[in-house]
Amino acid sequence: MRFALLLLLSLATPVSAQNFTTAAEVKPILLATKANWVALREYDGNDLLYFTHLESWRCGLSEVRFSVNSTAATKIWEMEPCHEGEAQPNALKLENHLPYTTLPLGMVSSVSVVAIFDDGTEERMDYDRKAILMP
Q1: Segment (H or E) for 121
Q2: Which class would CATH give 21-132?
Q3: Tens digits of pLDDT across the chain (135 residues)
Q4: What is the 8-class DSSP label of residue 31?
Q5: Alpha-carbon gap, residue 27 to 34, rounded angstroms
Q6: pTM
Q7: N- to C-terminal Cα separation, the chain
């Protein structure tokens, strides 16, 4: 009975956001969610390419590179800084930064992304338009 109570209490304890600020902590999440790293939305006559998912786990990343309609992935996505020392370091404040880029409508046929973790390892994902296009 005591073991069950201790187990229940340990499960009820919230996980600190500080636990998701290194590659070791965010890499398993990002590897499991590679299909969601970017999203594409047609809005107001433009293609909006969103990096929100990667931005949400950016504290364990050192860099994100991407390309549109090419597999080169040489353009650097400027991410909002990690808010180290704050209660929620991964929170997006969106003060001087938006989690998307605007491109001409219909321009995006494919996107390549390379996530570089703060431990120096890299993961790559390539997407075609219909795989990331939001309804």
Answers
A1: none
A2: mainly beta
A3: 454 444 444 444 444 444 688 888 999 999 999 999 999 999 999 999 999 999 999 999 999 999 999 999 999 999 999 988 888 888 899 888 899 999 999 999 999 999 999 999 999 999 999 999 999
A4: H
A5: 10
A6: 0.83
A7: 50
